[in-house]
Amino acid sequence: MAESEKTHLFPLTVVDFAMEHDQGHRDEMEDASYVCKDLPLKGSKCLQSPVHLYAVFDGHSGDKCAKWLEKNLHRFLTKFLKSEVDVGKAIEKAFLDADRELLEENPEIISGSTCIACLLETRTGRTWIANVGDSRCVVSRNGKPVHASVDQKPGRKDEKERIKRAGGFVTGGRIMGFLGVARAFGDAEIKADGCKMLIVDPEIQQFTLTNEDEAIILGCDGLWDVLDNDDVCEYVHECLQKKQQCKNIGKELVRMAIEEERSTDNVSLIIIQLGSGEPS
């Protein structure tokens, strides 16, 4: 279908969604997830309710940071989505302020976490994907992947150069040889004394969903390190064509990642099935 023939999904309906996760072969579960299908945004200057929020947090060096984000990040997003006139700026301020409070008021939390978050404005189909770290969002468009985020690995050219300018180095694909993500919440020790080798600034992609966009998949690197974007979207497409529920689709993807592809990490994902109709 030509671009001019596509129709946008507004109003948007979230037909179904599922959060699935598994500890896998790790000694402990460090991931967390969050879903809110109607953020309290009365009086917002930049969004029309209802607005959905979906987020996956992939913790490292423990689970406390990811769990803190699960309980608190939406509070910061709600605050700034009410006061700011630009959604992207609101997300940026929310992430930075959340990380500041996390570090300043919770000295007992020394772990860190990535974040992949999706905001859906159902009346318009407008969507914002915010990424911090190496978790990922992919949109399934008729079974083909549309990349809605770019992994922030220390070996990525621009990240490697930024880390070097901040006085650090990358070896073995890790900051200073030990941290495998270029951006993250928390990680108090590496951010001490204003060090900028590790930052929390999100990369944000904004687009309007079309009638070809059938599902959004958010996942931690434990999923994407072993399953290809194309294979995941093709599988989701086939299952949706067979009217399978998102919960069953998600469970099977997690199982495949751990049991068949032998992922060595925790595996967490959120699948959001899309459709058009009255706002949900």
Topology readout:
Elements: E1 12-22, E2 31-36, E3 51-60, H1 64-83, H2 87-105, E4 112-113, E5 115-121, E6 126-132, E7 136-141, E8 144-147, H3 157-165, E9 170-171, E10 174-175, E11 185-186, H4 188-191, E12 203-208, E13 213-219, H5 221-224, H6 229-241, H7 246-260, E14 267-276
Helix pairs in contact: 1-2
Characterise the protein shown here.
The protein is of the alpha+beta class and 280 residues long. The chain has helices at residues 64-83, 87-105, 157-165, 188-191, 221-224, 229-241, 246-260, and strands spanning 12-22, 31-36, 51-60, 112-113, 115-121, 126-132, 136-141, 144-147, 170-171, 174-175, 185-186, 203-208, 213-219, 267-276. It has one domain (3-276): Phosphatase 2c, domain 1 (4-Layer Sandwich). The protein is built from seven helices and 14 strands. The strands form three sheets. Strands 2, 3, 4, 5, 6, 11 and 12 form a seven-stranded antiparallel beta sheet that branches. Strand 9 and strand 10 (174-175) form a beta hairpin. Helix 1 (64-83) crosses helix 2 (87-105). The radius of gyration is 18 Å and the shape is globular. The two termini are 27 Å apart.
